[in-house]
Amino acid sequence: MSKPSIPQGTRDFSPAEVRRRQFIFNTLRSIFELYGFQPLETPSMENLVTLTGKYGEEGDRLIFKILNNGLHEKKDAEREKLNGEWNNILSRSYSSPVVTERALRYDLTIPFARYVVMHQNDIALPFRRYQMQPVWRADRPQKGRYREFWQCDADVVGSTSLINEAELLCIYQQAFQKLNVPVTIKINSRKLLAALSELCGMSEKMMDITIAMDKLDKIGWVGVANELKERGISEDGIWQIERVINVTGTNEEKLVAFSDIMQHSPSGMEGINELSKTLAFYNELDPTASFKTTGQDTNIQIDISLARGLNYYTGVIVEVVCSHPDVKMGSIGGGGRYDDLTGLFGLKGVSGVGVSFGIDRICDVMEELKAFPEQLAEGTKAMLVNFGGENETYALQILQQLRTANIPAEIYPDASKFDKQMKYANRRGIAYVLLPGDEERQKNMVSVKNFVTGEQKMMSIAETIVLLSH
User: Where are the beta strands (DSSP E) in 300-431?
Assistant: First the structure.
């Protein structure tokens, strides 16, 4: 028998790891609820036609397709036809639904848009929702990049107000502050990127330009310039892009510089106005204002190179990276405005904006920074040793009282050797072991051993509950 394994790009999670992830989920959930967002869940699989064509060429290649069931029942002629169609799928021809017509969801945004269209008569607009579920991408696994991973999204649809963008920035700030993760929040506007392609005299090349610019952090300007040249951007166009990328200063100074460069571009001026208003709204709502000292720099930075490669973004876009110098990780959050995402499914004129948290990457960063609270390592706080006979019954009575007092506790299920039970408690990292022996039962008490200090003391049940409640 071969050694058991799991698919590449997936992971098992130990109890301690699950507790850490739940800490992140619970922290984010509390903030989403504070801002008036409602919970939502959608199926793990969607119709293939729902997903394809929504993420750009690169995204479409990473969609996990699901093989239709019942193929083993086909006759030889049908099986030969299916093999041909399967070869078409492998060569990225998706026209045939015979072999596959469903896929695992690539993200949570497109399924959310599909949900809004299907339930448009049941929801009140603006609709504010948050969603925490796994997604799948047929990507090459590497550090911080998995084929199965969790996303956590917050979106508002049915409103064009930039107050929504500002509130989502507040959610990012508050969330990472509570998670004790230092971050830089980059913002830009796709309208500025459209204006940049106009400056290059190559409006039709906007996607080529944004795809290349989005790699600036990874390959540097020389690498981006080479890719722009390969994508057919002229030398003058590359110079225009470099001129804009080299703009530095505060957010206000950058906006002034962009205004000078793009003053003849309506889309550019609109993008500048969006960023200016978003930052103004944010400053009114800033949840971290009370923690800042006078003159302290903001961690929200306008970054003209930020592109967010997905096709559906139309306005303000945002990306979050960990700012700790010792952490080497890509983005741990991102999102933006999508003016007509529901139009992909026939519902026109419903604008939306949303952000996503990369749960797996955030968890990796927090582990690297040792940012999780120490008490998360605790599960069972006390274990009762099982001495068997009447003492076993007495131990069960104590166990019931502990759980009634909301103290996580368990009893060793078998009356095994004392040493075996103590080794189990030690391996589990249980802080207290309770010894309900003959003397303790007769006195209606229990001996409590602190595994950390080694101290042992006989106490009443009430005293034990008080001790374990702290």
Answer: 300-302, 316-322, 333-338, 352-358, 382-384, 409-411
Q: Residue 90: its pLDDT value, please?
A: 56
| Mean pLDDT over each residue of the chain, to the nearest integer | 88
Structure tokens at 190: 């796709």
Q: Are 28 and 357 spatial neighbours (Cβ–Cβ below 8 Å)? A: yes
Give, for 36, the enclosing helix (H) or strand (E).
none
For domain 15-64+106-369, which architecture applies? 2-Layer Sandwich (3.30)
Contacting residues for 35 by C-beta, under 8 A, at least 6 apart: 128, 154, 167, 170, 171
Spatial neighbors of 397 by CB under 8 A, at least 6 apart, are none
Structure tokens at 358: 């990369």
Give, in degrees to the nearest 5, the angle at Cα 155 between 152 and 161.
Answer: 150
β strands within 119-212, DSSP E: 127-136, 148-157, 183-189
CB 461 within 8 A of CB 403: no
* Strand pairing class (382-384; 432-435): parallel
pLDDT at position 295: 45
Write out the two tokens for 206. Answer: 């906007």
- pLDDT (average), residues 360-380: 86
Q: Are 147 and 139 in contact (CB under 8 A)?
A: yes
Structure confidence by residue, pLDDT tens digits, 266-286: 999 999 999 999 999 999 998
Question: By three-state DSSP, how is residue 308 classified?
Answer: coil
Please list, in sequence order, all residues whose beta carbon lies within 8 angstroms of the beta carbon of residue 292, skipping any fewer than 6 positions away.
Answer: none
Q: What is the pLDDT of residues 223-258, one digit of tens each?
A: 988 988 888 888 888 888 888 888 999 999 999 999
Which helix (H) or strand (E) element contains residue 459? strand 456-460
Structure tokens belonging to residue 356:
């996503």
CB 331 within 8 A of CB 214: no
Mean pLDDT of 346-374: 91
Q: Where are the domains of the chain?
A: 15-64+106-369, 378-468
Three-class SS of residue 152?
A: strand
- For the four alpha carbons of 295, 279, 155 and 133, in that order, the dihedral sign comes to negative
CATH topology of domain 378-468: Rossmann fold (3.40.50)
Q: What Å distances lie between residue 236 and 172, 199, 200, 228, 241, CA to CA? A: 38, 9, 7, 11, 9
Q: For position 296, what pLDDT does the model report?
A: 47
Percent of the chain with pLDDT over 90: 58
What secondary structure does DSSP assign to 77-120, as a single string?
HHHHHHHHHHHHHHTT----TTT--EEE-S-SHHHHHHHHHHTT
What pLDDT score does 391 carry? Answer: 96
For residues 217 and 319, the answer to whether their CB atoms sit within 8 Å is: no
Mean pLDDT of 376-384: 84
